[in-house]
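Structure tokens please, single chain.
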Amino acid sequence: MALTVGQLAGYVDRDLDADLGRWFPSEPCVDIPASTRSVEPFLAKLRTTQRPRWPVSTSRSDREPWRGFSSIGCDGASNYYVVLTSGRVAVWLHEEQVIEAHTQFDNLDVFLWSVVRSHAVRAGALDLAAVEPDFRSLGQPGVLAPKLGLLAHASPYVPR
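Here you go.
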């Protein structure tokens, strides 16, 4: 049976920790200090800046206006994975300063499910053949896009 986006709803809360433990048991973890600020106030402020009319003169600079997203990671080539105000996840190409049109994921659950499996394949902990049908059935442009999608980089990493 083909995996669907709906079946991944709640993945972060339900299965993310188990998947990380299964495929990356000896990887060091990031410790987030208790003093780290909550993201909730930031989200409220982000929503405030997403008004339909926002004066250009209040942008941070001519080259970097306020963006309608929050960065959640980097792809290793200085491009950022970002959560759009719609809840979709996409790649923001830092040099072009644009959201790449064909790199989106439906939501954070689908994005993290895909990234964890992609990294597990690259680490040699998961066979690509075991997960590729699921990647394809989900139909996420962020996985399937030529050159930028996760499948384009999913072969196991071999150190030199």
